[in-house]
Amino acid sequence: MINRFTSTLVVLLWSLAAVHAQAPSPIAGVPSALIEDLVAGSRILAEFGVVDAFGHVSVRDPANPAHFLMSRSLAPALVTADDIMEFDQDGNAVDARGRQVFLERFIHAEIYRVRPDVMAVVHAHSPGVVPFSVSKTPLRPLFHNTAFLAAGVPVWDIAKEFGVTNMLVADNAKGKSLAATLGNSSVVLMRGHGDVTVGPNVKIAVFRAYYTDVNARLQTQAIGLGTEITYLSPEEGAKADQVNFAVLDRVWNLWKQKVQPAAK
Ligand code: MN
Q1: Is the pLDDT assigned to residue 199 strictly greater than 50?
Q2: Rounded to whole angstroms, how far apart are CA atoms 62 and 207?
Q3: Whole-model pTM?
Q4: What CATH number has the domain bearing residue 234?
Q5: By the 8 A CB rule, do 153 and 187 touch?
Q6: 8 in a domain, yes or no?
Q7: CA gap 30, 119 in Å, rounded
Q8: Which of 26, 105, 181, 216 lies at 20 to 30 Å from 94 by C-alpha?
Q9: Catalytic residues, which ones?
Q10: How many domains are there within the chain?
Q11: How far is residue 55's CA from residue 185's CA, in Å, rounded to a whole number?
């Protein structure tokens, strides 16, 4: 009886899994797994306080690499697969259908335009990071998980080129200016605002957003100790980053579990 019940249950679960695996992607030509990464990334960053009601995650569209995918205007913790929209190279929604879009989508559009190596972008107002955007103290890598900071962390001041603004990257010109300051780095801080992290996939961009915030908090503590700080050298950074890439799935699977059931 128990065996029969168990086998029925197994068949039922298998059927459900098969149905889930065959669920159509909300964007034509884009694998469901990529949409799931985008949804999980948004929820993970919200879970850990890297983003709150604000902030967003995007991914380059594999079906049309000039385009990118991101949620409609929504708090990151609430994002589902059905909220993901497609945007063109200028940040215009391809098929808005009345949905509200993020004001700062130009951050993403202009970075994808000039960085062909970048496949995912995160914008956050990380509480740990903001102090470094307004002080003369550069954000520097304090421990191995933030090895990607060793290549340098530029700070973009919107006022330099645009004078007095509402601080938001709400048009292409501001996005282009921000992308130019990012240069070849993985992170750029935005004065009085937050930061942008980029990566070759969603997992790495999210990893970097999370650990940029952790590093900022730890660096503030280390500075508080009042003596000289030894940061990772660029050479140490390059070596340590290879390890971070290798163990990424361990981190991602743990984080993803914490935000399940995220996808439908
Ligand atoms: Mn912002």
Answers
A1: yes
A2: 21
A3: 0.89
A4: 3.40.225.10
A5: yes
A6: no
A7: 14
A8: 181
A9: 104
A10: 1
A11: 20
